[in-house]
Amino acid sequence: MNASPPSMATMQNLCSARSPSVSGDATLLAYLSDESGIDQVWLAPLGGGAPWRLTQCDEPVGTIAFSPTSRDLIFTSDCGGDERHQLWLVPEACAPAVALDHDPSVMPLWGAWSPDGARIAYCANARDRHHLDIYVMDMVSRETRCVHQDSGFREVLAFFPEGEALLIRDARHSLSDQQLFRFDLASGDYAPLLPPRDRARYSAPRFVDDGHALLMISDHGREFQGLMRYSLLTETLEWHATFDDADIEAYALSPKRDQVALVVNREGWSVLLLHGLIDGTQQIVDGLPQGVIATLNWPVLSDELLLSCESASRPSEIWRIDPQRGTASPITRSTRAGVNLDDFIEPSVERVVSFDGLSVPCLIYQPATPMPPAGYPVMVLVHGGPEAQWRPTFRADLQYLLAQGIRVVAPNVRGSTGYGRRYLHLDDRELRMDSVADLDAVRGWIAEQRDVDQRRVAVYGRSYGGFMVLAALTEYPGRWALGIEFYGIANFLTLLETTGPWRRKLRAAEYGDPQRHKSALERFSPIHRIADIDVPLLIVHGMDDPRVPPSESEMVYACLRGLGRPVKYLRVPHAGHGFTRREDRLRVFATLASFLERHL
Prior knowledge:
By secondary structure, the chain is α+β, with helices and mostly antiparallel strands. It has an 8-stranded mixed β-sheet, sandwiched between helices. A 4-stranded antiparallel β-sheet has the order 1-2-3-4, with no helix packed on it. Helix 6 packs antiparallel against helix 7 (504-511).
């Protein structure tokens, strides 16, 4: 390590690029970059050349999507992180942006362009804030029609090839219990596309075989996600590529349609493969940093793949891959703030046996600094979700911890994705506290390590990970030196009453119904045992958070303050579920660094 490791503020000035999208004429690349301090749309010639910034928004950009027939570009942007992402159009990717919707209280959910670029389809909760209906907009007249009304949560995935129907992903039950529907725009018929299976997920659909079949990623009837082909003519499905121990997370079809590039999730790391659709042969594509791949593209008439890739030691960049030659080169080169990325640490994997014999994978980050006389302090980092996975992506705060000589342990407790369907559902509803017991098993494993200072073991999490922090401190007091929780859940009943109305039923499917499972939700809620927290706690919350309202943190702070416990609370105005503005991150993580210096 350098004699003087970068400060937390310097770490937060590292920039990144992600979410590549290619214009319909395959000449222009659009992507998101936070060089300005918030995510904005940048453009670059696909054949090479200097990039330039397209949007000058006061708010971060969320999604970008080119028309399939032109350079018309749609992007989304919310206000203060409220997740009501309004739709904007940039004609020909050069004219001033035009707002396509005008009610900031509505949550539009971006869907798809029609194949001819004449229409777009999306979902929105304009009629009823609890439910998402389907809308179609004519891109010339800007006339918008609500074409289907229904209860629950749904998304437009694509137009059918002739533009006569929409492919809908319906998740009215839960985000991990989805169904695909065909919505006929002329007749209004809303019909299931595949035979129903218990709890299936579907993503990345693409029409193939002249529109007579769908290629998509799914775990339909399987433990892990694979690449599936569904024939619309015979209503049969076949699996093009599957693994018995890993999810396929993304794919891109080659222009010749004889092979696909696959992204396979193995223990959190992405493996890029070329898979032959005719002979089934597979070849690993090398040249990228060992990390996590996202947003895979294989432009028409191109021999090269485009993707975004990041690792634990490298912020995300856009990469160009020649799969035949085995070459890889970054297209973007984001600001590095004078930081030597070679000093950053990559993790390894350990497995911890939990109370019932379950093997819990953990990513272990070992500082390069010498061991202190009393042993290394440890920070246990818990991911949010809970249906998510701790992966070796770049975290500036994590690398700061390592530079300070703090070992980091990041477990994927039961309920995490990436380890199969059974593992995913092991924490559902009445099993909620089993995941907290997994966290305690990780703490027990740390207690067995001879090079750890057992007086300095802390726990840190965001969102659902914030609940895990509060639960760890209240269920197993005396095991932790301090806690850090960002926008965490304190009371599941109040959360389900106050979270965004479009999210309530989805969260109830995971946590429990407030009526039928009231007593269990009360038992799971750390607020009822808040007096058991007797170690320093840092709380941080965005005041416009639509997912976990600030009231969750307010009640924790009020209770601990009233009990005279050591608690620090940072309120962040005009911020949502996470801190997307660099100025907010500088303030938040300066507070975190100061808290650690004082208490750990």
